[in-house]
Amino acid sequence: MADNKEALRALKIKTGVMTRVRKELAMYEQEVKTETEKLEAMKAEGRDPHDVKQQDQVLGESTMMIGDCKSRMESAFNDLLAAVEEHGPDCEGSEELTAAKAILDEVEPTLEV
């Protein structure tokens, strides 16, 4: 029974990590879109070149975070997949296993191979 609790806890934690990283990625992708629109508007308005350069740096930092999030998401996916394979038999029929499998099925098509 103790092993089952440990297995359920491991699945729940790894599923939570995967969910959080997915949300972060979505947030950064939205931020890049917003910052790009803001930069284009600043250029169209003929704003001060220094302000445009600063906005371009903000956009660059957000873009950089997308790559970081994608690598963390891939790592979280692999960790969760390993946990499902390891603990799946111990947790058969549990809510945690169902949630873990569902998020794996949602994320797998979005990962770059």
TrEMBL record:
Question: What keywords were assigned to this record?
Answer: Chaperone, Coiled coil, Cytoplasm, Cytoskeleton, Microtubule
A single Gene Ontology biological process assigned to it is: post-chaperonin tubulin folding pathway
One MF annotation (Gene Ontology) recorded for this entry: beta-tubulin binding
Q: Which GO terms describe its cellular component?
A: cytosol; microtubule
Pfam families associated with the record:
TBCA (PF02970)
> What stretch or stretches form a coiled coil here?
18-45
**Compartment(s):** Cytoplasm, Cytoskeleton
Looking up InterPro entries in the UniProt record yields:
TBCA, TBCA_sf
Quaternary structure (record):
Supercomplex made of cofactors A to E. Cofactors A and D function by capturing and stabilizing tubulin in a quasi-native conformation. Cofactor E binds to the cofactor D-tubulin complex; interaction with cofactor C then causes the release of tubulin polypeptides that are committed to the native state.
Which family does the UniProt entry place this protein in?
Answer: Belongs to the TBCA family.
State the name under which the record lists this protein.
Tubulin-specific chaperone A
The beginning of the lineage is: Eukaryota, Viridiplantae, Chlorophyta, Mamiellophyceae, Mamiellales
